C-alpha cells in the first residue's frame, strides 16, 4: 500500500495548475463574471475549451488507441480538483463523460451538457444535450458563471446512473475539494494581512479556529475523494461526494466570515466559490439519497 | 496512489490472523474494569504472549528490541488485532507507545538495555507524569521542580491525569530543571526523567472519572530523589526529547479505534433494525453520514501512514487533522448509539453507555480540540501567534 501521489501524478497536477493559472487567472474569472452581468447570461470561452481539449483535459481516461491520454480516474480527479480551485466555468464533467461517445467532445470542439436531477446547466450554450430536457425553463442562476434551466416536476431527465454514483459524482466532488482547499488558502491569506483592534486578525483564536476547521474539512474530504478515485467503489464515491460538498459549502461560508464585511461584497471572490459549491452540491443525487445508500449498506 | 497491499504485506496479515485465531481462545476471561491489579495482570499476560510470538514492539527499531516493521505492517497489525477482538494495549500503553519509543530514540545504551526489554516482555508498567493542575494542554507551563543534589535530582511538585499510576513501576516524568526567566523561555529548562514509582515521597491519589472508573490519578511529589543517571537526553532538553517521539505516534495512534468505530456503526444498524428505530429516516441518514465519516477517517489513516513511510516518520498535516476530526466523530457515533438504544442508553450495563461516557475525553486528552486548532492554525497554516 502506498497511498500518496506518484511523481507522475504530481507532475500532472502541477501541469494542469500551471495551464489554468496562465489561462484562467483571477482577472479572467472576474472578466467572465462582468461579461455575464452585461450579457445577462454567462458566455463560454470556446477557445479555452478547445485549449483544454488539446491539452488532453477531456480525454485523460480515454485509451491511447482512441486518441486519449490513457490515464485513470485518480489522474482525472487531480485535474478536476485544479479546475475547482480556479472556478473554471462550463459543463466540464458532462463533456468529460461524453468524450469517446460524442465526436468532438474529447478535443473540446463540442461542448456537452446533461440533464441530471432537476436542473440543467449550460443548456443554451451546449452543442449536445444528454438526457430528456423537454419543458425546461430558464432560471436566474444563483451562480453568475453557471446558467441553469429547471426541468418540470417529475421529469428528472436523468442521464444515467454513471453520473449519479460514478465518475460524474466523483469528478464533481473533486471540483468541490479544489474549491474547499482554495477558500482555506484565501481565508488564511486574508487573516495574515488584515489588521483590526491593533493586530492581525489571524492572531485571534476565534479566527484561527475557523481556519483550522476549514483545513480539517478539506483534508478529510481529500482522503475520501482520492480513495474513491482509486477504488471506484460506488459507496465510497457517495461518501466522498457528501464530504466534499460539505467541505466546499462550509469552507466558503467560513471564508466569508473570516473576510468580515468584505466577504459580503461582490468584489471579494468568496461568494463565487459559495455559489458554485451550492450548484455542485445540487448536482446528481441528493445528500439524503447518498446517506440512505450508505446506511443501507451498513 | 495505490491502496492494494503487497504480497509480503498480505502474507504478514495472514500469518498474524492465523496466530490470533489460535491464541485468543486461550486467553483468560477479562477482568472487572475496576480491578486494577487484575487488569495489570491481564494486560501484561497479553503482552507476554505477543513477546513470545515475536509481535512485541512491532514498530520499534530492531536495535531497541523491536521488529522494525514498516508503518503499513503496523497498520495491518492494529487493524487485524482490533478485528479479531484482541485485548487493548491497556496498562502497557505508556511503556509501548510513549516512554519506550522515547528511550529507544533518545536514551543511552545502558538506559535502553535497562528499560526497554521489560516493557516488551510485559514485566514493567510505565505511567506518564506530564500534565499538572496548571499545565495540561499548555504542557510547557509545568512547574514541578527538580534540584541537583550530588548524583540525584530532588523533585517536588504535583502531577495530574497520570494514567495507570496505581499499578506503574516507572513514571516518565517531565520536570523543570531551570526556572523560567527572560533568558530561559518556558519550553527550555525542562528535563525528562525515569522515576521509580516506589521511591519515597510519592503519593498517588486515584481520580474517579465521570465514567466511574479510575483510569488516572493525581500524584504528589515531595522531595523524591531520582538518580541523575535516569535522565534521558540532556538537562533542559526534555521538551525536545518528548516532542520528537510523541509526534511520530500520531499516524497510527487511532488505527484500532477507527476499525472499532466502523464495527460499532454496523452493530448500531443491526440493533436499529431489530428494535424498530431503523424506520426513523433522520436517524438512518445520520448513520449513513457517519459511515461516510468513518470511511474517510480510515482513508485518512492510510494516507498518514503512507506519508510517514515516505518521510521516515516525520509527521505531516494529517495527524492533527485526524485527531480533531476523529475525536468529535467518535462522540457523534455514541450519541447516535444512544438514539438507537432509546431509554436503554441510560443503563450503564450496556457497553455503549460506558463508551459514550468515555468518548467525552477524546476532545480533551492529548491536547484539547481548542489547543489542536491553535496548533493547526499556527504551525500548519502559518497564522500569527496570539497573546
TrEMBL record, chain A:
One of its GO terms (molecular function) is acyl-CoA dehydrogenase activity. Keywords: FAD, Flavoprotein, Oxidoreductase. It comes from the Bacteria. Its cofactor is FAD. The keyword Oxidoreductase applies. InterPro entries: AcylCo_DH-like_C, AcylCo_DH/oxidase_C, AcylCoA_DH/ox_N, AcylCoA_DH/ox_N_sf, AcylCoA_DH/oxidase_NM_dom_sf. Gene3D superfamilies: Acyl-CoA dehydrogenase/oxidase, N-terminal domain (1.10.540.10), Butyryl-CoA Dehydrogenase, subunit A, domain 3 (1.20.140.10). The keyword Oxidoreductase applies. Pfam families: Acyl-CoA_dh_1, Acyl-CoA_dh_N. Residues 6-89 form the Acyl-CoA dehydrogenase/oxidase N-terminal domain. Residues 169-277 form the Acyl-CoA dehydrogenase/oxidase C-terminal domain. PANTHER family: ACYL-COA DEHYDROGENASE, ACYL-COA DEHYDROGENASE FADE28. Belongs to the acyl-CoA dehydrogenase family. This is Acyl-CoA dehydrogenase. It comes from Streptomyces kanamyceticus.
UniProtKB/TrEMBL annotation, chain B:
Belongs to the acyl-CoA dehydrogenase family. It comes from the Bacteria. The keyword Disulfide bond does not apply. GO terms for molecular function: flavin adenine dinucleotide binding; oxidoreductase activity, acting on the CH-CH group of donors. Residues 127-223 form the Acyl-CoA oxidase/dehydrogenase middle domain. One of its GO terms (cellular component) is plasma membrane. Residues 6-123 form the Acyl-CoA dehydrogenase/oxidase N-terminal domain. Its cofactor is FAD. Keywords: FAD, Flavoprotein, Oxidoreductase. Residues 236-381 form the Acyl-CoA dehydrogenase/oxidase C-terminal domain. Pfam families: Acyl-CoA_dh_1, Acyl-CoA_dh_M, Acyl-CoA_dh_N. This is Acyl-CoA dehydrogenase. It comes from Streptomyces kanamyceticus. InterPro entries: Acyl-CoA_Oxase/DH_mid-dom, Acyl-CoA_Oxase/DH_mid-dom_sf, AcylCo_DH-like_C, AcylCo_DH/oxidase_C, AcylCoA_DH/ox_N, AcylCoA_DH/ox_N_sf, AcylCoA_DH/oxidase_NM_dom_sf, Mycobact_Acyl-CoA_DH.
Amino acid at each position: 500500500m502506498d497511498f500518496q501521489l506518484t511523481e507522475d501524478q504530481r507532475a500532472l497536477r502541477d501541469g494542469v495548475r500551471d495551464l489554468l493559472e496562465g489561462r484562467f487567472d483571477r482577472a479572467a474569472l472576474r472578466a467572465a463574471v462582468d461579461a455575464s452581468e452585461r450579457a445577462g447570461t454567462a458566455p463560454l470561452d470556446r477557445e479555452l475549451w478547445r485549449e483544454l481539449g488539446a491539452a488532453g483535459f477531456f480525454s485523460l481516461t480515454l485509451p491511447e488507441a482512441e486518441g486519449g491520454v490513457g490515464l485513470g480516474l485518480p489522474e482525472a480527479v487531480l485535474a478536476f480538483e485544479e479546475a475547482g480551485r480556479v472556478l473554471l466555468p462550463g459543463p466540464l464533467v458532462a463533456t468529460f463523460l461524453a468524450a469517446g461517445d460524442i465526436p468532438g467532445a474529447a478535443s473540446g470542439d463540442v461542448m456537452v451538457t446533461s440533464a441530471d436531477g432537476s436542473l440543467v446547466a449550460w443548456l443554451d450554450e451546449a452543442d449536445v444535450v444528454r438526457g430528456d430536457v423537454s419543458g425546461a425553463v430558464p432560471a436566474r442562476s444563483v451562480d453568475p458563471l453557471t446558467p441553469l434551466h429547471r426541468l418540470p416536476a417529475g421529469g428528472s431527465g436523468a442521464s444515467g446512473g454513471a453520473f449519479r454514483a460514478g465518475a460524474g459524482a466523483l469528478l464533481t466532488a473533486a471540483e468541490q475539494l479544489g474549491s474547499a482547499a482554495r477558500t482555506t488558502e484565501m481565508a488564511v491569506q486574508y487573516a495574515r494581512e488584515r489588521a483590526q483592534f491593533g493586530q492581525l486578525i489571524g492572531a485571534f483564536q476565534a479566527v484561527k479556529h475557523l481556519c483550522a476547521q476549514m483545513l480539517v474539512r478539506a483534508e478529510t474530504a481529500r482522503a475520501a475523494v482520492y480513495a474513491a478515485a482509486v477504488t471506484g467503489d460506488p459507496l465510497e464515491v457517495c461518501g466522498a461526494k457528501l464530504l466534499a460538498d460539505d467541505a466546499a459549502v462550509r469552507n466558503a461560508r467560513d471564508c466569508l466570515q473570516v473576510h468580515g464585511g468584505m466577504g459580503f461584497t461582490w468584489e471579494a471572490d468568496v461568494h463565487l466559490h459559495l455559489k458554485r459549491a451550492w450548484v455542485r452540491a445540487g448536482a446528481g443525487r441528493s445528500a439524503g439519497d447518498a446517506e440512505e445508500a450508505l446506511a443501507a449498506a451498513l | 496512489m495505490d491502496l492494494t497491499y503487497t504480497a509480503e504485506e498480505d502474507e504478514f496479515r495472514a500469518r498474524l490472523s492465523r496466530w490470533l485465531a489460535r491464541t485468543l481462545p486461550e486467553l483468560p476471561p477479562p477482568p472487572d474494569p475496576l480491578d486494577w491489579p487484575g487488569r495489570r495482570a491481564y494486560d501484561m499476560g497479553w503482552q507476554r504472549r505477543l513477546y513470545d510470538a515475536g509481535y512485541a514492539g512491532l514498530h520499534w527499531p530492531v536495535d531497541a528490541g523491536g521488529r522494525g516493521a514498516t508503518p503499513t505492517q503496523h497498520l495491518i497489525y492494529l487493524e487485524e488485532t482490533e478485528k479479531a477482538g484482541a485485548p487493548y494495549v491497556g496498562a502497557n500503553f505508556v511503556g509501548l507507545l510513549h516512554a519506550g519509543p522515547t528511550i529507544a530514540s533518545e536514551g543511552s545504551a545502558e538506559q535502553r538495555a535497562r528499560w526497554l526489554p521489560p516493557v516488551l516482555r510485559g514485566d514493567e508498567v510505565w505511567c506518564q507524569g506530564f500534565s499538572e493542575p496548571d499545565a495540561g494542554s499548555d504542557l510547557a507551563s509545568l512547574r514541578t521542580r527538580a534540584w541537583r543534589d550530588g548524583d540525584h535530582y530532588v523533585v517536588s511538585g504535583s502531577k495530574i491525569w497520570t494514567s495507570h499510576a496505581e499499578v506503574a513501576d516507572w513514571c516518565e516524568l517531565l520536570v523543570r530543571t531551570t526556572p523560567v526567566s527572560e533568558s530561559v523561555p518556558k519550553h527550555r529548562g525542562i528535563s525528562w526523567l525515569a522515576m521509580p514509582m516506589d521511591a519515597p515521597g510519592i503519593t498517588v491519589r486515584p481520580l474517579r472519572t465521570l465514567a466511574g472508573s479510575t483510569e488516572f490519578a493525581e500524584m504528589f511529589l515531595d522531595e523524591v530523589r531520582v538518580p541523575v543517571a535516569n535522565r534521558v537526553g540532556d538537562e533542559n532538553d526534555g521538551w525536545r526529547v518528548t516532542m520528537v517521539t510523541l509526534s511520530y505516534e500520531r499516524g497510527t495512534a487511532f488505527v484500532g479505534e477507527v476499525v472499532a468505530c466502523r464495527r460499532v456503526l454496523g452493530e448500531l444498524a443491526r440493533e436499529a433494525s431489530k428494535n424498530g428505530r431503523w424506520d426513523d429516516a433522520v436517524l438512518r441518514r445520520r448513520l449513513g453520514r457517519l459511515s461516510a465519516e468513518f470511511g474517510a477517517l480510515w482513508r485518512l489513516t492510510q494516507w498518514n501512514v503512507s506519508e510517514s513511510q515516505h518521510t521516515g516518520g516525520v509527521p505531516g498535516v494529517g495527524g492533527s487533522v485526524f485527531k480533531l476530526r476523529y475525536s468529535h466523530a467518535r462522540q457523534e457515533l455514541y450519541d447516535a448509539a444512544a438514539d438507537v438504544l432509546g431509554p436503554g442508553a441510560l443503563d450503564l450495563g450496556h457497553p455503549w453507555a460506558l463508551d459514550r461516557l468515555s468518548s467525552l475525553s477524546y476532545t480533551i486528552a492529548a491536547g484539547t480540540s481548542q489547543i489542536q486548532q491553535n496548533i493547526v492554525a499556527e504551525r500548519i497554516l502559518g497564522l500569527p501567534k496570539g497573546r
